[in-house]
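URGENT: need a sanity check before tomorrow's submission.

F., can you look over the Transporter record below? I want to be sure the sequence and structure line up before it goes out.
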Amino acid sequence: MSTAVVGLGVRQYKRGAAPMSEHGVLVRAIVDACEDAGIDPADVDGFVTYGDDKNEPVRLMSDLGTKELSWSSQIFGGGGGGIAATFGVAAAAIISGQAKTVAVFRALVQDNSGRMSAAVMAHHLTDYIVGVGLTAPAVECAMRAQRMLEHHGVPRQCMEDLVRASYYHGARNPKAVSYGKELDVEEYRASRIIAEPFHLFDCSRENDGAGVVILTTAERARDLKQKPVYLKGVAQGTGKGWGDLLQNDADYASAGFKSVSRRLWAQTGLTPADIDVVQVYENFSAQGIASLIDHGFCTYDTVGEVVRYENLIAPTGKLPVNTGGGNLAQGFIHGIGTAIEAVEQLRGTSANPVPGARYSLLAGGPGAPTVSSAIFSTDTE
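Structure tokens as predicted:
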């Protein structure tokens, strides 16, 4: 048995400007996703989320009219490393018969849950780390980025090109916060330093909102409203020498995906050359590049040839990345937008379509102690 994505829903607002509570925004997004799929919200019997989401599924039941809550789960960790893993556990619940229709979701409204960065800091910035002056995720990730630039020789230009590509796509995506706004390269270079080497535009900035992706069996998906997008494979975890939260990881400039990507390629029988489009969670630009390296799209030696602006944009680039604008330019509801764009590409509904796309890779939050990746496909198996 295989599983497929059948419904998408997203409500996104400026941070601090949601017109309703986080609960209300999430309920609306779930209803949107069910309408997209052509199913009754009451028939959703499973839920899974990640990143310290506060919305316990049992509290959604009365608003959704849920007939029966059969299964619910949440991925450990406060960062975005678990985003792709949610699809793995949703598929496991469906394939094992514990649930029939599962909503993968993430909701974030500042007036209810506070700043997302606080949740990330609570998990990732231990007393040991804060005690030596690393008081924000940007500072911690900046150290890893600096290592990548200085020790491994990754060109600084790669960071700029990833940001430019994100804004190129965002400017052409009506759903993006940067829609209609081209990135001024000189403005980017002159923007204030947040934590060296990160300028303002290298950093994701939070939005209020909620995103929902509905999964069910591939067999049932064929009879629903939208073109099914199949879950090809998922891998989650961390390798030896990584993830102990002490800033002494064996491969300090890595995004933590090397063991995960190795298992993902083995599980699916695919290679980086088979992937048509990539949605990479970029809390910061350098961490997005580290993800691409960890997944084998390039090496420290070739990254300057691969991570080039012209190569990253759809439809002409050979490695289109973050075609909705990503966390930098589409909006940042803790990365759920990247998952939705991964599916939109294979549906053919992306604002920046990659013609003939067959395989779409989603990479979760880089640099988190536990990370995850998934591949979606137009293949039925």
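My own read: The mean pLDDT is 94. The radius of gyration is 19 Å. If you see anything odd, call me.
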